[in-house]
Amino acid sequence: MSESKTSLYAGIVIAVLIFGALVLVLVNSPFPSSRLVHSEMIPTQPGSQIGGAMSGFLWDFRGMDLLFQTLILFATAICCLAMLREEIRK
Known about the structure:
By secondary structure, the protein is mostly helical. The chain has helices at 3-28, 34-39, 50-60, 62-84. It has a domain at 57-85. It is built from four helices and no strands. It is elongated and about 75 Å long.
């Protein structure tokens, strides 16, 4: 194997390991400001809890949202690298 292929595979392995570590961190810890937001929620109507329930849902699942955004950016970067790579002709 040539040196460029070895460095490419090493870069891919490192990127996958970093992505895996990021996934583990995001899945195992709550979004930091969710506790603050839950204490300052304002209902949309007097006596209604819909504002608090909706806000709580959006802040509780923020980690999953960030995970999917990271996955999309990672896939986009890999696709851009694949489109811009140099072809070696023999």
